[in-house]
């Protein structure tokens, strides 16, 4: 028996409708294939990778993850963290590719274990790509000496995973994709089928559900909630609701509505962020395009100026890929931008970084101020605890 998909209430359906409205607006923008869409997709993917790994204690900047995705050595990330990021990037790259794997796609244990090997293949001592052969415990985020959750015995894992695979292929197929993804996440993280990497795999499989079931006009990185989950207090809230809903041991009869509601809020907030970043990137591109034209710069150089606009590092190899240039052309462009004062070099390597130069002051603050902070979805402002009675009736009470 798996943790079951709960019934949704009016607030849930309203929030799902609001999420879909935001997604529809994003589809409309992306359908036009703006030149900056590749940078937006890479940035969202990098934020998801950084967020998911931060939850597990492998902190990295979005800049460094983007560099890693472009094939560069990160500048500020320790080697131990870098190999974890590389593993997660491999996993996410394949998940993104599976979005158009065709109608004959099926979930199976081989696929899920294969994704786990991509994630954890550098830890051969932890049985990557194979179910665990012993017990596993999840420690409390408040005290690593305290066990917050004891996973099912290893002998139960094959049967539970077979049930989960069957559910992924055939279960609750009429449920909204956000709910299906949330329940895949919850069940996989509570089965905890591997020695390590269970949290990241659960979040990755949630994104895979989106890759397969959401429409192709909105890539899966627009639906990932990993960035939001990896932020400070959100991470503690994530652990708290997992503990509340999952219980101290595998108890699938528990009510899961609080978990789904938590995930719906995360998706709503993340959709707000994606909408904001899309608007900001569009405005920044238009501003920089006008500035480049006035200065006699080729429009392709906007690809180099766009990271600097936000105060981020400009890496030559990333610019080369974005603008689809040869190695020498990218080097010449960066040198020209440095000569004109648009960029200031940092580092001696050929792939060194640059920052905004004295020729301009990026007005990014003016653009950011156009958008308010993300808001809690309507009806989700309450801290509600829901429990299932023995007769199956859900009883909910507001806490504070």
From TrEMBL:
<dbReference type="InterPro" id="IPR003812">
    <property type="entry name" value="Fido"/>
</dbReference>
<keyword id="KW-0067">ATP-binding</keyword>
<dbReference type="InterPro" id="IPR036597">
    <property type="entry name" value="Fido-like_dom_sf"/>
</dbReference>
<keyword id="KW-0547">Nucleotide-binding</keyword>
<dbReference type="GO" id="GO:0005524">
    <property type="term" value="F:ATP binding"/>
</dbReference>
<feature type="site" description="Important for autoinhibition of adenylyltransferase activity">
    <location>
        <position position="56"/>
    </location>
</feature>
<dbReference type="InterPro" id="IPR040198">
    <property type="entry name" value="Fido_containing"/>
</dbReference>
<feature type="active site">
    <location>
        <position position="192"/>
    </location>
</feature>
<dbReference type="Pfam" id="PF02661">
    <property type="entry name" value="Fic"/>
</dbReference>
<protein>
    <submittedName>
        <fullName>Fic family protein</fullName>
    </submittedName>
</protein>
<feature type="binding site">
    <location>
        <begin position="196"/>
        <end position="203"/>
    </location>
    <ligand>
        <name>ATP</name>
    </ligand>
</feature>
<feature type="domain" description="Fido">
    <location>
        <begin position="107"/>
        <end position="265"/>
    </location>
</feature>
């Amino acid at each position: 028996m798996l943790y079951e998909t709960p019934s949704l209430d009016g607030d849930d359906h309203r929030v799902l409708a609001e999420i879909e409205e935001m997604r529809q607006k994003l589809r409309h923008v992306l359908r036009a294939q703006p030149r900056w869409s590749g940078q937006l997709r890479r940035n969202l993917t990098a934020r998801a990778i950084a967020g998911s790994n931060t939850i597990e204690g492998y902190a990295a900047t979005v800049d460094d993850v983007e560099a890693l995705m472009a094939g560069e050595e990160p500048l500020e990330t320790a080697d131990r963290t870098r190999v974890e990021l590389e593993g997660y990037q491999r996993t996410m790259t394949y998940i993104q590719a599976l979005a158009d794997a065709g109608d004959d796609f099926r979930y199976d244990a081989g696929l899920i274990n294969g994704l786990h090997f991509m994630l954890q293949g550098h830890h051969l001592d932890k049985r990557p790509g194979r179910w665990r052969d012993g017990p596993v415990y999840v420690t409390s985020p408040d005290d690593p000496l305290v066990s917050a959750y004891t996973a099912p015995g290893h002998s139960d894992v094959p049967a539970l995973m077979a049930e989960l695979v069957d559910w992924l292929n055939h279960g609750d197929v009429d449920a909204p994709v956000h709910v299906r993804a949330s329940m895949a996440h919850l069940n996989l993280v509570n089965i905890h089928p591997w020695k390590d990497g269970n949290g990241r795999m659960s979040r990755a499989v949630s994104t895979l559900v989106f890759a397969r079931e959401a429409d192709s006009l909105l890539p899966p990185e627009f639906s990932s909630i990993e960035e939001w989950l990896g932020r400070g207090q959100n991470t503690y809230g994530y652990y708290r609701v997992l503990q509340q809903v999952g219980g101290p041991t595998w108890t699938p009869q528990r009510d899961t509505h609080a978990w789904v509601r938590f995930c719906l809020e995360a998706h709503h907030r993340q959709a707000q962020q994606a909408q904001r970043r899309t608007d900001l990137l569009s405005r920044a591109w238009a501003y920089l395009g006008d500035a480049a034209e006035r200065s006699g710069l080729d429009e392709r150089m906007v690809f180099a100026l766009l990271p600097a606009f936000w105060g981020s590092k400009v890496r030559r190899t990333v610019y080369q890929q974005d603008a689809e240039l040869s190695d020498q052309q990218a080097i010449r462009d960066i040198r020209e931008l440095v000569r004109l004062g648009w960029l200031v070099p940092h580092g001696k390597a050929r792939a060194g970084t640059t920052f905004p130069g004295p020729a301009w002051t990026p007005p990014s603050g003016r653009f950011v101020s156009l958008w308010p902070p993300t808001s809690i979805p309507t009806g989700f402002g309450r801290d509600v605890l829901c429990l299932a009675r023995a007769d199956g009736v859900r009883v909910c009470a507001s806490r504070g």
